[in-house]
Amino acid sequence: MKSKNRILFFLGVLILLFSNYSYAQIQIQDLTCEHLTNPLAIDVLEPRLSWQLAGDERGIEQTAYQVVVASTREKLNHNEGDLWNSGKVESDQSINVVYDGVELKSKMDCFWKVKVWTNKGESTWSESANWSIGLLFYNEWWGRWIGFDRPFPWDDNSFHSRLSARYLRKEFEVKKPIKQAKVYLMGLGLYELYFNGQKIGDQVLAPVPTDYDENVKYNVFDVTDQLKSGDNAVGIILGNGRYYTMRQHYKPYKIKNFGFPKLMFHMEIEYEDGTKAYVLSNNSWKGTADGPILSNNEYDGEEYDARKEMPGWNKVGFDDKDWLEPEYVQVPNGTFEAQMTPNMKVMESIKPVSVTMIGEDRYILDLGQNIAGWMKMTVQGDAGDTVQLRFAEVLQDNGELFTANLRDAKATDIYILKGGEKETWEPRFVYHGFQFVEITGYPGVPTVDDFVGQVVYDEMETTGTFETSNPIINQVFKNSYWGIRGNYKGMPVDCPQRNERQPWLGDRSTGCYGESFIFGNEMLYSKWLDDIGYSQKENGAISDVVPNFWRYYSDNMTWPGTYLMVADMLHRQYADVRPIKEHYQSIKKWMDYMKDRYMNEDYIVTQDRYGDWCVPPVTIEAGRGKSADKKHPRELISTAYYYYYLGLMEKFALLSGKGSDVAEFRDLAQHIKEGFNRKFYLTEKAGYGENILTDNLLALQMGLVPEENHEAVFSTIVDIILNRNNGHLSTGLIGTQWLMRALTENGRADIAYQLATNTTYPSWGYMIENGATAIWELWNGNTAAPHMNSYNHVMMLGDLIIWDYEHLAGIKSSTENSGFKEIVMKPEFVEGLNFVNASYQSVYGEISSEWQKDRSTIEWKLTVPANTKAKVYIPAKSATDITESGVELFQANGVNYLYQEGARALLEVGSGEYYFQFKR
Ligand code: RAM
What we know:
The chain contains 16 helices and 47 strands. It is α+β, with helices and mostly antiparallel strands and 920 residues long. It folds into 5 domains: 2-132, Sandwich (Immunoglobulin-like); 138-300 and 308-341, Sandwich (Jelly Rolls), CATH 2.60.120.260; 347-456, Jelly Rolls (Sandwich), CATH 2.60.120.260; 464-809, Glycosyltransferase; 822-919, Sandwich (Maltose phosphorylase, domain 3), CATH 2.60.420.
């Protein structure tokens, strides 16, 4: 560049910079519609739009926004909001802004952008984003349901169901230049979709499972780029999933089977000239059940015969004359709904640690981590060579797989080679929970380079990082991370390995809340909430397992009550109030049902089923070889929970505009509180019920203890832990949900810390000491009887993850301004812990908290996202004991000292990064 030009260039840049000065300050990012990024199909007509603000200055607050929604990209580029132009709206709302434009219709594409005004300047227009509406009405599906509603001679529909995969194909012609082509697909139980030989999308095990009698989820793909002019081919493989369920004729009253695999396909091609063409599922397709996938069963594994591959079956020109005409099959009962939670994906691939020979032609592969997913294998050999992979979570002492805890799940994949070149294979329609694999029949010597562990779960963001100076806390956190992701399977399941894998409600009642710090699980749990609603019977009863593939309507209190807990979590963590509004009536119906059936005249709720499920046996020896499924139902538990739920109902009523219901809930709650104290309070012991830890924790944390007994009951809790239990917990699935917060909120974070770092039985650390790489189902997982002893179950996490974030890191949402619009940052700088580094991606953006101690001072660095505020609690006698970024507190930019609260100074800060220092 000539020097004159260079000067002109820099001048230009300068002018640009200055003219945009106020704009450049604020950026808008992460636009979502219904919490999804550019969804291809939603079936919500008042979708909610969200965005995040970012900028370098402290204290950024949105003061107004403008949203423009257009029917084409061109219109949007010209700011022509033909669907909606909100105009400038004075508001600080940046999440869940409800679309309020032209009525949305099936198949509509909507393009949108937003700009904001803040107290620190305004933004430019955001990048554009989009959403599309799915097929809203049944009669817009023009295809027919096709498949084969029968077994083939090689199928076996006895107990261990074996069904080969079904392959369907169709060729069609593209006659003119295409503007857009979209596929709407329901493939049950599971599908893989191909166009011209290419797999569409990176989803696996799609769609997400539902109770197909109630609803079937459809997936939508934009295949504009996959089509070519002239002849094209579409191919679909169908697996069983939970539709043709894993066990046939087994406790038929309990296990739901839906039928044989089937699909409905609807493709619309819009040509550039405005005309349309359709490709629809009907009997002009061809199908076969005689392909390479001989069998696929989630419990038992997949069998694949590569010799039976049909090269080119999903491409143009394949000779399908031997294929069959598909049948018009039984239509699923459920309504058709757009799937608004992401599918599963291979989220991580890991290399095995070792492959060891343990016998002639037998090897054990160790992945080094208990995962849920499968192995991908590379192999070379002769046609007909058969490799068998058996999966297990742990080994026996003799080095063989331990499979007793899988019960009758065969957990075995079989691959038969086609021979010749190297072959790479992974199963399509199954997954396993495992760390170890027994390999037999592998031609040559298998090595770690021939295998990859594929970690499979719902596509979602990892939102949390967490690390402390204590290795046990860190390892338990890491194990939790693995356990949680392993058990997300389009629904939260209890375990991924044995012949169960069911979405039991009780396991997630508080768990969903802790999990939400680590994973962006909002859509998964919103979907689950709908599933729970669907499980409700006419009379109000709700299943313990939802979707209710296993039908357990036990009228238990604590499992179905998860309905309320999930709705509450979505509100607390994501400020999502719509689920509460949508489910309010059904929740209330369940509450009434339980009250009418099970509340006696003394206001005691009498029905409970599982009690404090899986409490630790008194000693590790006492639990040796013992089965853990003893139920000890307790009226104290059901009554306490009913009381707690009434508190939630009060909140839900207010949020749903049902304020007139509040008095009824309050009144009943008051009676229950009195009845509960009359029946369960043991005056001389200052405790409740059997005076065990769980009983007292529930009474205290659920607000059932009268003010005057508070201290005494808490002392009993402390006494039980420190003296009776010698510094250990004694809680099962129920009590552990309240344990860590009860201790901390009542001033004994030190005891919570002791429980979190214990390595002796029973404790989370004990699992680690005994080789756990996920979380065990049982505190005594190393000695219990195998038939109910999973090594990857998250229910015993209780409120530990919540404690990690809210109390160690000090990252908590206020209840009034939920979804982290207002953040409560009140870490416990517990003795023994020297640092905590944590971050959390909230709906507003990243929140972080990093503190560390040296001999005399504590340094605490924290980040607050734009358009939020934080209440910051610092243990200091006065503001003068605190500095921020090296200056006195009163001079610090954007920090507002409010007042002293006990031993802490309470500050308020706006968005930005802060760096506090204060004396220990
Ligand atoms: C078991 C599972 C599950 C639990 C139920 C009650 O089968 O372990 O986690 O919720 O029982």
